[in-house]
Design a protein that fits this description.
The protein is α+β, with helices and mostly antiparallel strands and about 425 residues long. The protein has 3 domains: about 220 residues, P-loop containing nucleotide triphosphate hydrolases (Rossmann fold), CATH 3.40.50; about 90 residues, Beta Barrel (Elongation Factor Tu (Ef-tu), domain 3), CATH 2.40.30; about 90 residues, Translation factors (Elongation Factor Tu (Ef-tu), domain 3), CATH 2.40.30. The protein has 9 helices and 26 strands. α7 links the parallel β7 and β8. The protein starts with a strand and ends with a strand.
């Protein structure tokens, strides 16, 4: 460790990062009550990030709330409202290490009312763990038309998640009892759907677990309980997965996920490209304001000299006095290579399921766009063409399950994003209407 004198004369400590461990982000997604928070909490317990005394406190609190089986979820669900209702409403965030990676774990809400928060979590992820309840009736509820399993899979794919781990949870439940038939039935039902969404079979992984009991999380489930499963534990699996291609030599791009003021101004986000260094000057877009980074905290909340592509960071900055000047969706850029600003753009879009009472997309269609950490109202100004096998055909409107080229107008304000060919994570987006 190195003592340094920065940040307006305040002394702090810079930690040397173990470069042998790659930074990686995993988001847990899926239908409400599938067990996402419980799995995340148990991973933190088993990897030594939570001590037994804390668990005992959570067990007592859960019992007082008449929710004894929810105590593990309390590790990630930190607000009183989440603990009382047993429903994640914000993206929980924590950290753990495997043999080769330093993980940021993101616990996304599963309830239909918090899809925007789920999108913010998924937009930061390298991998998605889609949690599916094996319990009789619960898988079916999540996979039907009004369930979140389908929508979360579509959103994860559209946001660029390259590896999907299908975590079949609650295998120890009385209606399942580690049944291979139940596991295979769920796998068969989901596989065809995921193929239609665009996931390649080689990018999908299947694993049975008990999130509450911890079977197949860190250590393999016993052959006595589950003699038919021959694969790795969940931790071994995600430790072995390849990382997306990253390039530290590209210009810096950090979409701002959040900001706050506390003895200085802080911003949070994931580095989509480049390297951020303390003591360096960067430009905040679309403000075009130069800022100085006076502290860099990595995903483990350690002060570091620099952080690379893929790392979730917290930066202390100078150069902006008013917190309101920084918006979610602002982008921190290299001063000599700024992110484009615009409010009208041409895009290629695959329209999947449309609203029942709005079965076509035509000029003037209003909806909401989610692009990196931005959520804004927009209008499809013009349907330019329908695309079929790369052949463009001029049309006046399009229906569902159709690929098209359209002109999109973000009417409220100009945004920062980029061409997909330049920065994939800043050039892909999702359109939603009436919560779908």
């Amino acid at each position: 460790m190195i003592d340094v004198d920065i940040d307006d004369g305040k002394e702090g400590t810079i930690v040397e990062v173990d470069e042998s461990l790659a930074a990686a982000n995993i988001v847990f997604i899926g239908h409400v009550d599938a067990g996402k928070s419980t799995i995340a909490g148990n991973i933190l317990l088993k990897t030594g990030m939570v001590d037994e005394r804390t668990i005992e406190k959570f067990q007592k609190e859960a019992k007082e709330n008449n929710r004894e089986s929810w105590y593990m979820a309390y590790i990630m669900d930190i607000t009183e409202d989440e603990r009382q209702k047993g429903k994640t409403s914000e993206v929980g965030k924590a950290f753990f290490k495997t043999k080769s990676k330093r993980f940021t774990i993101l616990d996304a809400p599963g309830h239909v009312g918090y899809i925007a928060d789920m999108l913010k979590g998924a937009s930061q992820a390298d991998y998605a763990g889609m949690v599916i309840s094996a319990k009789q009736g619960e898988f079916e509820a999540g996979f039907d038309k009004d369930g979140r399993t389908r929508e979360h899979a579509i959103l994860a794919k559209s946001l660029g998640v390259s590896k999907l781990i299908c975590i079949i949870n609650k295998m120890d439940e009385e209606s399942v009892k580690w049944s291979e038939d139940r596991f295979n039935k769920i796998k068969e039902s989901l596989s065809e759907f995921l193929k239609r969404v665009g996931f390649k079979p080689d990018d999908i992984y299947w694993i049975p677990i008990s999130g509450l009991q911890g079977d197949n999380l860190l250590e393999n489930v016993s052959k006595h309980k589950c003699p038919w499963y021959q694969g790795p534990s969940l931790i071994d699996l995600i430790d072995s997965l390849p990382l997306p291609t990253r390039d530290d030599n590209l210009p810096l791009r950090i979409p701002v996920l959040d900001k706050y003021k506390e003895a200085g101004l802080y911003v949070l986000g994931k580095i989509e490209s480049g390297i951020v260094r303390y003591g360096q000057t960067y430009t905040l877009m679309p403000n075009k304001t130069n800022i100085d980074v006076t502290w860099v905290f990595n995903s483990e909340e350690n002060g570091v000299k620099f952080a690379r592509t893929g790392e979730s960071v917290r930066l202390k900055i100078k150069g902006i006095e008013n917190e309101s000047e920084i918006q979610t969706g602002s982008i921190i850029c290299s001063v000599d290579n700024l992110c484009p600003i615009f409010n009208v753009f041409e895009a290629e879009v695959m329209f999947l399921e449309l609203i029942e009472h709005k079965p076509i997309i035509s000029n003037g269609y209003a909806c909401v766009i989610h692009i990196h950490t931005i959520e804004e109202e927009c209008i499809i100004d013009q349907v330019l063409a329908q695309i079929d096998k790369k052949v463009e055909k001029k049309v006046k409107f399009i229906s569902g399950n159709t690929r098209a080229k359209v002109l999109i107008n973000i009417s409220n304000k100009a945004i920062c994003a980029d061409k997909f060919e330049n920065f994939k994570s800043l050039g892909r987006f999702t359109l939603r209407d009436e919560g779908k």
